[in-house]
Amino acid sequence: MDRVPAFVRGMVVKAIEAYAASQGLAEVTPDIVDEAKAFWGEEGRFHQP
Fold it and tell me: What is the span of the domain harbouring residue 20?
């Protein structure tokens, strides 16, 4: 998260939390952050529909 600009960091945190929730998880781990980044890279978009 250090590389995420401060002005979008809150939005990224919320998106990662939403991604974890969509996977049925209550806690965000470093593995979930990596998984979310990979998902966004594959899909070519930041937000889920």
Answer: 8-42
Alpha helices in the chain (DSSP H): 6-22, 30-43
Query: What's this model's pTM, rounded to 2 decimal places?
Result: 0.73
In tens digits, what is the pLDDT along the chain, a chain of 49 residues?
778 889 989 998 999 999 899 999 999 999 999 998 888 876 666 665 4
Q: Is residue 48 part of a domain?
A: no
The answer to whether residue 23 is domain-embedded is yes
Nearest to 48 by CA among 24, 25, 14: 14
Nearest to 1 by CA among 43, 30, 24: 30
Number of structural domains (the chain) is: 1
